Amino acid sequence: MENNQTLSQRFDEYQPSKTLWFWSVVGVSVLTMIVGFTAGGWTTAGTASEMAKTSAIKARAELVANLCVEKFITASNASAWPS
Q1: 3-class secondary-structure state, position 28
Q2: In 3D, which of 41, 38, 42, 34 has the Cα closest to residue 26?
Q3: Cβ-based neighbours of 51, under 8 Å, separated by 6 or more
Q4: On the CB side of 9, how many CA atoms lie within 13 Å of its CA?
Q5: What integer pLDDT is reported at residue 56 of this predicted model?
Q6: Positive or negative CA dihedral for 27, 29, 34, 40?
Q7: What is the pLDDT of residues 24-41, one digit of tens each?
Q8: What does the alpha-carbon distance between residue 34 and residue 43 come to, in Å, rounded to a whole number?
Q9: Three-class SS of residue 39?
């Protein structure tokens, strides 16, 4: 190989082995999963299921609280309650 080749010429002539390709693909796959689950916001099915259950419970509690307040406000003797 000549020393006075440009970077693009050396890149064009480079032929990696199958072993290098394999380990590069494995490394990139693992790195993608690490970044995805830590910084990308990916979740597993179990975590997503727990999040959905928690959301449903909170929504139900908020709905019941709103209904109670609405019934209290619209009651006939609501304005006389503090006295």
Answers
A1: helix
A2: 34
A3: 43
A4: 6
A5: 97
A6: positive
A7: 999 999 999 999 999 999
A8: 12
A9: coil
